[in-house]
Amino acid sequence: MKGRGLWLLFFLCWTWSVPAQNQSVLQQLLQTKGLKQAAVGISVRAVADGRKVLEYCPDMALTPASVMKLLPSWLALREKGEKYQFRTPVYYSGELKDGVLAGNIIVVSQGDPTLDSRYFPKRSFLQDLVAAVEKKGIRRIQGKVIIEGARKGVRIPGSWPWEDVSNYYAALYLPFNYKDNTFTLQFRSGEAGKPVELISVTPFLPGTEVRNEVVAAADKRDNAWIFGGPYSPVLYVKGTIPANRAVFRVKGAMHDPAAVFVSELETVLLKNNICVEQKEITSGERYELLSVGSPSLGEIVFHTNKSSVNLFAEALGCLAAGDDWSVRVEETLKQAGVDASGMVLKDACGLSPMNAIPARVFTDLLVYVGQQRQTALLNSLPQAGADGGLAGYCHASPELKNRLKAKTGSMAGVRCLAGFVTRKSGEQLAFTILINHYTCTTAELQRAVGKFLNSFL
Fold this sequence. Notes:
Strand order of the largest sheet: 2-1-21-20-19
Distance between the termini: 38 Å
Strand content: 25-35%
Number of strands: 21
Helix content: 25-40%
Number of helices: 12
């Protein structure tokens, strides 16, 4: 009876349109050790004519992890265009005479997520601002450096796990962002079982205390976690790091990037013999000092998907939809002819485990993107053979190199993939594979999925 029940489920999920040559590879994938009890959704369609090639539970809403980033990337490009730039204006207020500014420097927060980002190393908002102050002939600022609008409210996407919020990959998107809203802790460890030494916190976090409760372990993995909310003056670091390390780095989420920026700016200004006196001066008439444009939206989307940057994805979602994220996504997908029913959207980056989207939604969107030749989004997808994130899928199927390009998504018990496979005939297929609750190793799962995709070449 149990066997008949499993067969009935397979029968109901499996679309009748599956060609005979694909039946065995689908069965082989589903029978992979660790997948028999997993939730799996698969949708494969030809880009040219949109025909269904293979489907398995395509309407089952599953956690997509970072595959979610396809939605804010597409929506932001559609709404704003790939040449759009965030702008960050800077003003000075008060009277400027003989190098003395009887006023303030005012930076207006406009949501640029890329200020001094490691993904754009040739750009430095801080250095540009210092140069602008020097060019204006300002040698002394009697007032303060003010980041206007930086504390309008902290956006914490729904259902993010508490253990994630203070770790680097969960850096919150804020009105003012700096250095990817990330800081680094440096530790020195001795023998296993002993407390480790916290050497440094970079950059300095004004008004924040870091309490170290990390212990050395024989385990070679980074198992240290940072706890503390965005309004907390104390961050706790718990867990373990590998033993006998002279330097071991752990990255965290910077909750007050505006304060960090002001601290670093004042330090650099002082090194350039420009002092900030910190007097309370009411801002008077403003005069533009500088206006900095971000990299193009196309460039931001590129790194959002190539490097899977959660901060950038949240910025794209906010830019395109504001607080109406889930409603706007559903409406815009429908405008593109994509059936958006069955979605549960809790964030834009995919970090929330409560996100749930059917595989067919991503595949139908990719078919649309492929037919419209939306190159900015297409070029942002990792390429097998060139980008490391897809390497595991090619270990047993090297033929996928240069034929597979896809966005990956992963979290505990979740591995997902959505993108394109180019057949040897030149035909392009759009596909989505969402797998939740697998129990085999990640390497075993990736090999199985790689073999499945290889069958379409």
